UniProtKB/TrEMBL annotation:
Keywords: Repeat, Transferase. It comes from Microbacterium deminutum. The keyword Transferase applies. PANTHER family: ACETYLTRANSFERASE, UDP-N-ACETYLBACILLOSAMINE N-ACETYLTRANSFERASE. InterPro entries: Hexapep, Hexapep_transf_CS, Trans_hexapeptide_repeat, Trimer_LpxA-like_sf. The keyword Isomerase does not apply. Pfam families: Hexapep (PF00132). PROSITE patterns: HEXAPEP_TRANSFERASES. This is Transferase.
Length: 135
């Protein structure tokens, strides 16, 4: 049986240890907290300080940067990028290849489409059809 972790060198020359999450085999850094019922698919990276709540689904190839928070039952589609310190509310759906900037906030139940970009520090709320609501 193979090892259940991998060591990867970051841009600053530091070695980070990632373990393979039991549900999906995605890589979760030491210091990140992922609920056992969450799914982190293979090819995804969860950086230190990230919190992923119960029932969340992290698609293949997603990168979640440090200190981001993913709410319960959130669904992040493949190849999305969640910036450092971003907060994704409960039940949010993030589309394929969507970029969520550093410190951005996505309100509970929002629907963010494919290939969208949410800027650094931006706050977004949508209805069930994905239409943005006034701030």
């Amino acid at each position: 049986m193979g090892k259940n972790y991998v060591d990867i060198e970051n841009d600053r020359g530091e070695m980070l240890r990632y373990r393979k999450h039991a549900n999906g085999r995605g890589l979760v850094a030491h210091g990140a907290k992922v609920h056992p019922s969450a799914i982190v698919e293979a090819g995804s990276y969860v950086e230190p300080g990230v919190q992923i709540a119960a029932g969340a689904h992290i698609g293949r190839g997603v990168w979640i940067e440090s200190d981001a928070v993913i709410g319960p039952d959130a669904d992040i589609a493949p190849h999305a990028h969640i910036g450092s310190g971003a907060a994704i509310g409960a039940g949010v759906k993030i589309g394929v290849r969507t970029q969520v900037g550093t410190g951005a906030r996505v309100a509970v139940g929002s629907l963010i489409g494919d290939d969208e970009t949410i800027g650094d520090g931006e706050r977004v709320a949508t209805d069930r059809r994905g239409l943005r609501l006034a701030a």
